[in-house]
Amino acid sequence: MRRGAALLLAAAGLLSSGCATREPAPAAVVSEARLQQTVLPGQTTRAQLLAALGDGPAIRFDSGAEVRLFHVPESVGAYREFVVLLDPNGIVAKTRKGALVTPPR
Amino acid sequence: MARPNVQASARAIVSADSRHSTSHAGGDKPRGTSHLPGPALFFGPARYFGMARMFGHARLLAPSIGLPAALATCLSLSTVPAHAQTAEPMPKVVIARVKDPVDKSYRAMIKGMDRFERERALAPQASLRFRLWPRLPNASLDGVTLRVAGDTLTLPVTIGADYSFVLPRSEQALREDAAVLANRKTASLTWRAWVQTPGLPPGARRLGDLRLECRVGMDARLISNSAPLFGWLSNMLANTEETCTSPQGNYLFFAERPIFGVTLRDGARREALPFKLLYASGEQTPQSLPFCDCQVLLDRSYYAPLWDRSWSDDTVLEFEYMDLPAAALKAAP
Lengths: 105, 333
Known about the structure:
The complex is a heterodimer. By secondary structure, chain A is α+β, with helices and mostly antiparallel strands. Chain A has three helices and five strands; from the N terminus they run αβααββββ. The radius of gyration of chain A is 19 Å and the shape is globular. The N and C termini of chain A lie far apart (45 Å). By secondary structure, chain B is an alpha+beta fold. Chain B has helices at 17-20, 22-27, 51-55, 67-77, 82-85, 106-118, 171-175, 207-219, 231-237, 240-245, 326-331; strands at residues 33-35, 41-42, 92-94, 104-105, 127-134, 146-149, 154-157, 164-165, 179-182, 189-196, 205-206, 253-254, 259-266, 269-272, 301-302, 316-321. Chain B has a four-stranded antiparallel sheet with strand order 4-9-6-7. In chain B, strands 11-16-13-14 form a four-stranded antiparallel sheet. In chain B, helix 6 (106-118) packs antiparallel against helix 8. The longest helix of chain B is centred in the middle third of the chain and has 13 residues, at 106-118. The radius of gyration of chain B is 24 Å and the shape is globular. Chain B starts with 16 loop residues before the first helix and ends with a helix. The model of chain B is unreliable at 1-84 (pLDDT under 50).
C-alpha cells in the first residue's frame, strides 16, 4: 500500500513537472497616442516596435506569426489591452484593443 | 504477430498498427477464439499501465495449459470421432486483447455521451459529435479512419470531412470494454467533444455548448495533455466538476483558424476575452509544449469563461482570426 502510494506520488510529480510553464512578463504601459503614432500595420517592423515601446509578453507561433501585448492606461489601476500581430516577416499585420484588465502588483 | 517495439521515453508512441491493421484480424491468433478441450478459460482485458509501454506488450495466451499440452490436445482432437465431438459444446478460450493505455476507451466515451444527455439543459438545441485534431508536428488527419475494437467486435465509425464523428452505441462493445482506435498512432491525435447549437453565426460558439463540451470531454477522457506514459494517471486524477467549473480548470478549446481575438456577446453586454485566456495563457515553453495537447494548435487555442455564471449559456463567442495573407506566410524565412 505504501509502495503504491509512493509510486502514485512520484508519477504525479513527474506528471506535473512535465507541465512546468512560465509566468508571462509584465506588459509595457504605453499611451494610446504613442501607439497610434508608432504601430502602423503593413509598415512597422518588430525592431521598430521594440525600440519605441519596449519588450513585454510575446508569443511566437510555429507559423512564424507573433503576438505582442501592451497596456494602455484607461483609469486608475486599470488598463486596456492592446494586441499587435506581426506576420512571419516581422511586420505589423494588425492591431486590436482588448479587455480591460487590472494587472497584479 | 510481431511484438511492437516500444521506446522507454516519456514520449513513447506505441505503434497500434499491428493491432488494428487489416492483416491483424485474419492472421493473429491471439485475437478471437480457439477451441480446446478442458475447462473454459476467459481472460478479461489486461492493462499494463506504463510498464507495458516500457517493456513491450505481451499477448495473453492460455498460461495454465501450456503450449505443448495445448498442441497435443489439438492434434488429438482431430482423431476424435465426429459423434463424440458434437456430444458436448466445446469450451471456448478467449484470448484477451491487450490495450494501449492511451487508447480511447469506448466505455469512457459512452459515459461522456450519457453526460450530454443528462445535461442537455446547457445546450437544449445542440447535437453531439466528437472531433479529431492533430496532436504532433507533421501529423496529418488525411485518410484517418476509426473503428470500435473489442475482443470479438469491430464497428466502423464514419468520419466527416471536418474529422468529426458520431460514436455508435453498442452493448456488446460495452461488455467487451472496447477501444476506439484510429489507423495511426494514438498519440498523434487529440480528441474533443463538439457540442453545436444550430443557427449561430459562422464560426461562432455558444458558451453553454462549450460548458457541455467540457463535461462530455472530461467524462470521455479525451484530453491528452500528459506524456503518454502517464496519460492514465492524468485521466484518473482529473475531476470533471472541478475542471469545468473552476477558473483553474484549464480546459482548452480550439478554433477553426488561428485566433487574433475573441469577443463575448451576451445581449447588450460585450467584452473581449483577456489575452491571458488565449494561447494557453502564453505560459507554454518549448519544454512544456510537447505535454500540452495544444502542441500544434497553440495559435487556435483559448479558454472560455466556463466558471463565470455572469455570462449566460446563451453567450456567443465571436472570433477574429489572424488570417495572415498566404504570401506573407510563404515569404517568411
